[in-house]
Automatic annotation (TrEMBL):
The keyword Signal applies. InterPro entries: GerAC_N (IPR057336), Spore_GerAC-like (IPR008844), Spore_GerAC-like_C (IPR046953), Spore_GerAC_C_sf (IPR038501). The keyword Zinc does not apply. Residues 1-23 form the signal peptide. This is Ger(X)C family spore germination protein.
Length: 383
């Protein structure tokens, strides 16, 4: 009987053990968290940022500011798949792609075309659809080696979590890959891709310069083809036509300001005016705001009028800069395409670029000031 019981216990233990043989320890896997895809000498060159989650997982022994090692792999191939699978030969550990947060493409890759990149990323079952998409002209190794403030891991940086930065100061909306491709395939559309750069001279650790990631502009595409790049200074007007704008500051007026306002929650409408073979567009926009700084005793009505003028000027200035590069920054022709497809096909279908300087007609801006911060609508005086 004792032998029978011992044998039964042994068989039970063996049966339990067999269910775990195919499992893998999480700490012995390499996790790809970001990729930079380049195209050099007719080959795809991919740099992969690799992290081990045992180094960045939150636990009682983790110290804030502790250095987190970043491994960067480089491979190449005649196809995107070949370039990605070349990593396996020397990685020593199993690479898992399910935690990929961002894909960055270089200007060379944009000029080559992005179909192959997106096809591979979406066919591979481990990679999710909600991967952030960026363009860059920076060195892939330098870009992927950037840490966050206080030496937090790259998972806490602009590369992987841009929303926390966008919520504080909104300029260019973070973009997911599936939305980027959807916009590329839509007629009458200039597609924007955020431009990722390394900005030096702002932060230091003690006396050592620490370059941080920054959105310095955007790349644009027309009909699946790369068009041009625009700096952030030329794109200030584009933020007001983003329905997901959280908050963004303006000086009122732009030069020698007497107030600073934070703008929120834009609501806008684009109207197309068809006049024979010509089409012009009106933009009506309404925004909420609050006064964050008041430098002079100015009435609320004067503040609103000056702010409305600043925003109108930004919208027109961005439009004028964009059409020089053949970019439909406000997707005006898309409005015509959706509401009047027959007219769009008749007027725009065969034109290389449909807009002119006078295509933008009226820009009507209306601002509401919700509050003046902790003070009333007057200049605070120290007594």
């Amino acid at each position: 009987m004792r032998i029978l019981k011992t044998g039964s216990i042994f068989l039970l233990l063996v049966s339990l053990m067999t269910g775990c043989w195919s499992s893998r320890d999480l700490q012995t896997m390499a996790y790809a968290t970001a990729l930079v895809v380049d195209f050099v000498d007719n080959k795809y060159v991919i740099h992969a940022q690799i992290l081990n989650f045992s180094n960045i997982a939150k636990n009682e022994s983790t110290q804030i500011g502790q250095e987190v090692p970043i491994w960067i792999g480089k491979s190449e191939g005649t196809t995107v798949t070949e370039a990605m699978t070349t990593f396996y030969a020397t990685s020593q550990l199993r690479i898992f792609w399910g935690h990929l947060k961002a894909v960055v493409v270089t200007e060379n890759m944009m000029r080559r075309g992005l179909r192959e990149v997106y096809d591979e990323m979406n066919r591979f079952h481990q990679i999710r659809f909600n991967v952030l998409f960026y363009g860059t002209n920076e060195s892939p190794t330098e870009l992927l080696s950037r840490k966050s403030l206080l030496n937090f891991s790259p998972l806490e940086s602009l590369l992987a979590r841009p929303k926390q930065f966008y919520d504080q100061k909104s300029l260019i909306l973070p973009l997911y890959g599936f939305k980027f491709i959807a916009q590329l395939n839509e007629a009458g559309n200039s597609t924007l891709l955020p431009s990722l750069a390394i900005r030096n001279g702002v932060w230091t650790e003690d006396t050592t310069n620490k370059g941080m990631l920054d959105i310095d502009g955007a790349y644009f595409f027309n009909d699946l083809k790369y068009t041009d790049w625009m700096p952030i200074s030329d794109l200030l007007g584009a933020r007001w036509l983003q329905t997901k704008l959280r908050r963004s500051p303006i000086n009122v007026p732009d030069e020698q300001p007497f107030a600073v306002l934070f703008m929120e929650n834009p609501k806008f409408a684009i109207t197309s005016l068809i006049e024979g073979e010509e089409v012009r567009y009106n933009i009506d926009i309404e925004l909420s705001s609050y006064v964050n700084e008041l430098r002079e005793n100015v009435s609320g009505e004067d503040i609103k009028k000056a702010a409305e003028k600043v925003i109108e000027d930004e919208i027109r200035n961005t439009y004028n800069k964009a059409i020089l590069k053949k970019v439909d920054i406000y997707m005006l022709s898309k409005t015509l395409y959706r509401k009047h497809p027959k007219v769009w096909k008749k007027i725009y279908d065969k034109k290389e670029f449909p807009l002119k300087k006078d295509s933008l007609n009226e820009v009507n801006v209306k601002i509401h000031i919700d509050h003046y911060g902790k003070y009333k609508d007057r200049l605070y005086e120290v007594k």
